[in-house]
Amino acid sequence: EVQLVESGGGLVQPGGSLRLSCAASGFTFSSYWMHWVRQAPGKGLVWVSRINSDGSSTSYADSVKGRFTISRDNAKNTLYLQMNSLRAEDTAVYYCARDTYSSGWYLSLWGQGTLVTVSS
Amino acid sequence: DIQMTQSPSSLSASVGDRVTITCRASQSISSYLNWYQQKPGKAPKLLIYAASSLQSGVPSRFSGSGSGTDFTLTISSLQPEDFATYYCQQSYSTSITFGQGTRLEIK
Q1: Closest chain B C-alpha to A111 CA, distance in angstroms
Q2: Nearest chain A Cα to B40, which residue?
Q3: Which residues pair with B65 in a beta bridge?
C-alpha cells in the first residue's frame, strides 16, 4: 500500500526539541521531493519545509528557519524534521507530504499527521 | 511570499447545489494552482492539480479553472460527503503557500 506514516509527536516544553519521522512505503521514496506542512488547532494549512529527492537541497518557512532541520534517509525510506527551540506557536498537527510533478507540482500523498504540543 | 486569498471563507449550501469557490494569487502563478479537500481530523486530499486537472479517483462533479491570478473550484452538484474545508495552494514558488480555506457547511 502506498502510504506515509508520521510519528514522534508529543508534549514538549517551550525551548525543547523533538524529532518527527515520516515512514514511506509502497513507492520509490528516493525519487520524490518531500514536504512538511503543519496545521495549528482550528487553523489552516501552513507549509514548513521541503527537501529534494537526494537531500542536497532544502528550504524553510521564515517562521522555522534556523530552528527546524529537514532531512531524509533514502535507505530507510524515512523523512525527518528536527525541531529545536520550540515555541507555543509551533503547536500543530504536522503532516508529511509527497511532491509530484505533472504539468505542475502538487502534494499527491499525505500522511495522517502527528500532533506536537508545546506547553509548560 | 505569494499570498493566496480564498473567498468566501465559509459557505452554506444544500445537497444538489452548484458551488463555486474562488482563489486569488498576489502575483501571476500561471497554472501552478492546486485544490485540496480536508475533513475534520483527516489529512488533506488532493482534488485538482495544475488548475484544471482532476486527480485520479476524484468524482467528475469537481472541476477547476483559471490561470494567472484568478482561479475557481466548482462542485456541480453537492453531495453529503462534500461538506468539508477546501484549500487552494500555489506551487509556482518553491515556498508553497495555501489559501486560508473555505468551510463548506450544510444549509
Answers
A1: 7
A2: A42
A3: B72
